Amino acid sequence: MAGGKIRKEKGKQKSGPYQGQGLGAGGISFHKSKGQHILKNPLLVESIVQKAGIKSTDVILEIGPGTGNLTKKLLEVGKMVIAVELDSRMVLELQRRFQSTPYSNRLKVIQGDVLKTDLPYFDICVANIPYQISSPLTFKLLFHQPAFRCAIIMFQKEFAMRLVAQPGDKLYCRLSVNTQLHARVSHLLKVGKNNFRPPPKVDSSVVRIEPRKPRPQVNPVEWDGFLRICFIRKNKTLSSIFRLKNVLSMLEKNYRTLQALQSSQNSSLGNTEIGTDTPSLGDSNGDQSMGVDDGSDDEMDVEDDDGDSDVEGEVSEFKDKVLAVLREGQFEEKRASKLTQQEFLYLLSLFNKAGIHFS
């Protein structure tokens, strides 16, 4: 995005002064260590603003405004722009560029790390971000209250393709399912590396994210824990995954702990009932759990069950309980790589009905 920055994780691209609009003759030298790259194609900037569907009454959150070329376009169509920028030099440039202009009282600049910043109310988010924060920022936005109308974000191309991937696609993964539970995601634009100065090593894509309303009634921590197991080996059958020793051990520990909690609470509260919607064990901040999901296939230190390892009857009994859930929903031979959102939700409900939880 013009005036914005892409900071690649390794940041090894060379960079020089940016001679863009609104800068003095000396320009600004971009930090090579941050891999800062400027979108130089004004037609792409116009297209991004147009596809955002901005209204004259909209408050716009811009992440990574850089020197403010996109900021200016956003100010022209929206009511107000709140720009979050980490680089102090860019903050000064933004303030200098828009002071004594008609836009000065409609621009608020916040200097800081967007992941550590309490975001104010906004209607639309436009972001050109360091690729290494793609996942945590996505889920920070999805859990933001109150829900915004949409976000238009530029990601590394492969990450963007994982966000929009459908069951059966090669890139379909836990990130795809997690994101699409909470939002409608659509691909808007491909942005080739040569549209930047200096060009990065990877292509980019612009994605539109619209939070679902109402929000899904799923415990986000348990949902993510459930998906982590399903996607341990996404092309393996669920029956083979849920036979793994480590998986069974973890689930049984949760099962026994929850039973003990329920027994204790029932004793102290008399007739109070605890149903299958009991909050899952662990941190209730779902974005903390899902923020580490970078879209790569999950790898877990797992041990295959050879069928003769059940020394104690309780272990065998619990394994039978787990496999019975898969049989009930006819999921034994199904694979995570091909399951739809509704199938994942249904299988989780069957496990919860049997008292099995995932966090």
From TrEMBL:
The keyword RNA-binding applies. GO terms for molecular function: RNA binding; rRNA (adenine-N6,N6-)-dimethyltransferase activity. S-adenosyl-L-methionine binds at residues 37, 39, 64, 85, 113, 128. It is an enzyme of class 2 (transferase). Residues 1-13 have a biased composition (Basic residues). Its EC number is 2.1.1.-. It holds the Pfam family RrnaAD. InterPro entries: KsgA/Erm, rRNA_Ade_Mease_Trfase_CS, rRNA_Ade_methylase_Trfase_N, rRNA_adenine_dimethylase, SAM-dependent_MTases_sf. Coiled coil: none annotated. This is rRNA adenine N(6)-methyltransferase. It comes from Citrus clementina.
